[in-house]
């Protein structure tokens, strides 16, 4: 039996906070689209894949994406076995709490929440930049990027008032358009140039060439987001079936899409792809679109970058709100944040602090006269990505430990998440060691941001220890809501 939540007037009360998410409203396809939207495939292809070509292993980038996909797939084999036991909107939070203890769980939950909010802020910065650039092209030069960002935040607030399946349909439309556009470019390249030499492009000597570490950073950061399938378990129809399906579908689509697209771009540019992408990484993909699809194709791609960024902002906002909800339901945050709308189960209250943080961050950067793309996006993208990669690594090692607690033994399936965890740990270490390449800046302040993740984990640890001493009833609930016995 799953725990049911009961009413509470505050986090210090003996009973959990009242709040139930809408059950049975999301199918496998809905969840897959929501997770893929967070991955923002259009933004990845346009913004970071060219940098990987330029600074990394060049022609070996396609193979590097394949290796990152293998690591994620190995992780997922154990991950989906664990999920039926933990149907909690704070996925990492509950898994770590049930495996390594409540103190570690609460520390991990704050790292996850801050990482998702940071990525939401970063993507919002990029979105506001693209929207404002479009408005300026249309003659609306007076619109400041901060105004565009606040308008998007207002839309997020409105959408959070509706049931989650409404959001899922919006994300499906946006995602479908961007994927079709990129695949059209890939197909146009291969039809014009042929299929190249797969044996050469995926040869170990090419993939393992100098620069592999740099490309691995971007490859691992590109697949972050698939783990969010677990966040929507409580709102899923038949979660024991729909969540594994959505997880594998998301991994398959993300990885195959990136590998195929990188392959097509390599075919188009040949051995000189590193130099071609390095000339102007921001315009590399648009140049290919102009050459193979014409000016109209380039214009469509430019518009879809905006829809891709909006879909990612919306998905990251939903992830953040559900972490706030899960923490409030267990008593770590104020109980009123766990109250959902009676009519549709939307966690509207949980989204309000996220809206507040987004508004404050945008306002501070705008008032300081900073660039949304070069300052806001670069500062927070690497920060959020490193935080989630670290949690993925911890979770990968937590999966076999958790399953052993439930079954009394390590099964053969435990070997897969261990292997995936080792690869994820390597990616995390590479990301931290080469952090300036993720941020694209020489700023010492920005490049030391990962250290803040340790401070955030420390805050969660301190709160958990305080709760254990002063409020043992609340401490006992950490990570327990919706956990199967």
TrEMBL record:
Membrane topology label: Multi-pass membrane protein
Domain of life, per lineage: Bacteria
Transmembrane segments: 33-56, 62-82, 103-130, 142-164, 171-195, 201-226, 246-266, 299-317, 346-370, 382-403, 415-437, 449-467
Name this protein carries in UniProt: Amino acid/polyamine/organocation transporter, APC superfamily
Gene Ontology, cellular component aspect: plasma membrane
Matching Pfam families: AA_permease_2
Protein's cellular compartments: Cell membrane
Example GO molecular function: transmembrane transporter activity
UniProt source species: Rhizorhabdus histidinilytica
Alphabetical list of InterPro entries matching this protein: AA/rel_permease1, APC_superfamily
Keywords linked to the UniProt accession: Cell membrane, Membrane, Transmembrane, Transmembrane helix
């Amino acid at each position: 039996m799953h725990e049911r939540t009961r009413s509470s007037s505050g986090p210090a009360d003996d009973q959990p906070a009242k709040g139930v998410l809408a059950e049975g409203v999301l199918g496998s396809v809905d969840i897959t689209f929501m997770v893929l939207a967070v991955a923002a495939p259009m933004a990845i292809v346009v913004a970071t894949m060219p940098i990987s070509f330029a600074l990394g292993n060049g022609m070996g980038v396609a193979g590097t994406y394949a290796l990152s996909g293998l690591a994620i797939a190995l992780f997922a084999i154990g991950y989906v076995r664990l999920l039926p036991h933990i149907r909690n909107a704070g996925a990492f939070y509950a898994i770590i709490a049930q495996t390594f203890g409540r103190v570690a769980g609460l520390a991990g939950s704050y790292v996850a929440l801050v990482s998702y909010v940071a990525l939401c802020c970063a993507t919002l910065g990029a979105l506001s930049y693209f929207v404002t650039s479009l408005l300026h092209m249309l003659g609306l030069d007076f619109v400041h990027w901060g105004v565009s960002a606040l308008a998007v935040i207002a839309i997020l607030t409105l959408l959070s008032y509706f049931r989650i399946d409404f959001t899922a349909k919006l994300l499906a439309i946006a995602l479908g358009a961007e994927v079709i556009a990129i695949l059209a470019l890939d197909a146009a390249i291969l039809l014009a140039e042929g299929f190249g030499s797969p044996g050469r492009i995926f040869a170990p000597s090419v993939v393992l060439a100098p620069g592999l570490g740099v490309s691995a950073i971007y490859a691992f950061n590109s697949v972050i987001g698939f783990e969010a399938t677990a966040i929507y378990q409580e709102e899923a129809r038949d979660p024991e079936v729909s969540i594994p399906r959505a997880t594998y579908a998301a991994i398959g689509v993300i990885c195959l899409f990136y590998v195929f697209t990188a392959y097509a771009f390599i075919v188009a540019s040949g051995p000189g792809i590193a130099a071609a992408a390095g000339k102007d990484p921001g315009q590399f993909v648009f140049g290919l679109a102009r050459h193979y699809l014409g000016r109209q194709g380039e214009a469509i791609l430019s518009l879809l970058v905006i829809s891709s960024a909006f879909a990612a902002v919306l998905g990251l906002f939903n992830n953040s709100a559900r972490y706030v909800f899960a923490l409030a339901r267990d008593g770590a945050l104020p109980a009123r944040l766990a109250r959902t709308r009676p009519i549709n189960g939307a966690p509207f209250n949980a989204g309000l602090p996220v809206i507040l943080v987004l508004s404050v961050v945008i306002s501070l950067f705008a008032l300081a006269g900073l660039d949304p793309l070069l300052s806001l996006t670069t500062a927070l993208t690497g920060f959020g990505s490193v935080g989630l990669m670290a949690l993925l690594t911890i979770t990968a090692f937590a999966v076999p430990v958790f399953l052993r607690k439930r079954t009394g033994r390590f099964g053969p399936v435990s070997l897969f998440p261990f292997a995936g965890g080792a690869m994820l740990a390597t990616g995390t270490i590479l990301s931290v060691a080469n952090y300036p390449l993720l941020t694209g800046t020489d700023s010492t302040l920005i490049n030391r941001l990962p250290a803040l993740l340790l401070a955030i984990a420390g805050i969660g640890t301190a709160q958990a220890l305080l709760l254990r001493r002063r409020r043992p009833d609340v401490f006992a609930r950490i990570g327990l809501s919706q956990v199967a016995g």
